[in-house]
Design goal:
The chain is mainly alpha-helical and 140 residues long. It has helices at 17-20, 24-36, 55-74, 90-104, 107-117, 123-134. Helix content is 54%, strand content 0%. The longest helix has 20 residues, at 55-74. The chain is globular, with a radius of gyration of 15 Å. The termini are far apart.
Length: 140
């Protein structure tokens, strides 16, 4: 098995997060994950029923349900750091990449990201929830 080497300093690579801070979406998801830790179990398939017709309520409910059901979609509990933390976990990077591919309409990347970690039966619900949350953030 091979693994990629992490190069600490490479002049050709540029990461905007180190200059501008994290995206608002990542901090929002981190807050939602922190708040969802003490809430009861919600089934991924019944979760969409919790969403409201009211846009503001639906946005907050989608964030809450996404963070409460993400462990079901991934098959394990995701690693999410505190809001404002400069480091990002693999799970956070994966979520942001998926949200970015949903917003830009990059179907190939979205398909790859979903197939790499999420069972097929959970694709539609995860895309719906993350797409709903990501639509409210202009920059991801």
């Amino acid at each position: 098995m091979t693994s990629a080497l992490r190069l600490p300093h490479h002049d050709g690579l540029h990461d905007n997060r180190t200059e501008t801070g994290h995206t608002p979406l990542l901090d929002h998801l981190r807050h939602a994950a922190r708040d969802a830790r003490c809430k009861s179990y919600v089934d991924l398939f019944g979760a969409c029923a919790a969403l409201s017709v009211n846009r503001d309520v639906a946005t907050q409910a989608a964030s809450d349900v996404l963070m409460r059901c993400l462990s079901q979609a991934l098959g394990r509990r995701p690693i999410l750091f505190r809001a404002g933390e400069p480091e990002t976990s693999f799970d956070e990077d994966w979520l942001l990449a998926l949200a970015r591919s949903l917003q830009t309409g990059d179907t190939a990347s979205c398909t790859f990201l979903l197939h790499s970690r999420v069972p097929k039966h959970a694709h539609r619900n995860l895309v719906f929830l993350l797409g709903n949350v990501a639509d409210n953030f202009s920059q991801i």
